[in-house]
Amino acid sequence: VPQGVIPFKSGVIFTQRARIEAPVSTIFPRGSSTDLVLVLSLCSHRINNAFLFAVKSKKKKLQLGVQFVPGKIIVYVGHKRSVYFDYNVHDGQWHNMAINIRGQTVTLFTSCGKRRVHADLHFKKDEALDPHGSFLFGKMNQHSVQFEGAICQFDIYPSAKAAHHYCKYLKKQCRQADTYRPNLPPLIPLLPRDPNASPSTPQHLDPSLQGLKNLTTVTPSL
After folding, report:
1. Which stretches of the chain are assigned E, i.e. beta strand?
2. What residues does the Thrombospondin-like N-terminal domain cover (predicted)?
């Protein structure tokens, strides 16, 4: 179990001590483009401006990323190039969604595909991800604020149909995740606190959280 990661019944909790980084080549096949679908199931525990993930080139240029700020989801497709959606992840609730990046359009799907919002990039994005780059989970770089929350599913698909019908791709436990809301208050004394961070919404402890026996790995799949 990586430092700063706590497993619970329907996924894992990322605390501010989490440090997850991997070579791009271990996450994406060589030659992968930024045309892809993200299927996500998550619950934010702290209001901040953290990235859910960031893909950076060998020269440290941001190629792909998703950032959660209060009231908005920002999708980066290229260095300093982004689109945003009016959507609040920081409400203490579980959110199941899909983000489809296809050509010059980024689409956010919610309500099992019944709701969708499009945003145009208005620029030419990079053709391929740098295989010598790095993938960071929960951060934009090692010095930025960390995403703190529970993750049930983080999957990457090359097919656009996964976005339109993303609920078919959700794991069973992610559909029921709201039932297993993890309770952070008993864990907080064990973790160093960020004095500049806003307080999170309390949840209810999953009684099955005892030790580290129920680890559910969060590995992007293709």
Report:
1. 5-8, 11-14, 20-23, 36-44, 51-56, 62-69, 72-76, 82-86, 95-102, 105-110, 115-120, 134-137, 149-157
2. 2-160
Identify the pLDDT of residue 179: 60
Instruction: State the pLDDT at residue 142.
Output: 85
- Residue 168, burial from CB neighbour count under 10 angstroms (0-12, 13-18, 19+): exposed
Q: Hunting for tokens 């893909």 — which residue is that?
A: 55
Torsion of CA 133, 16, 145, 134, to 10 degrees: 0
What's the pLDDT at 185?
A: 44
pLDDT tens digits, residue range 69-85? 999 999 999 877 899 99
Distance in angstroms (rounded) separating the CA atoms of residues 124 and 72 = 23
Task: Give Cα 14 to chain centroid, integer Å.
Answer: 11
Give me the domain span that covers residue 15. Answer: 5-173
Is residue 72 in some structural domain? yes
The structural domain count of the chain equals: 1
Contact (CB, 8 A) for 127 and 136:
no
Is 40 domain-assigned?
yes
**Which residue ranges in the chain fall short of pLDDT 50?**
184-222
Cβ within 8 Å of residue 212, ≥6 positions away: 1, 6, 7
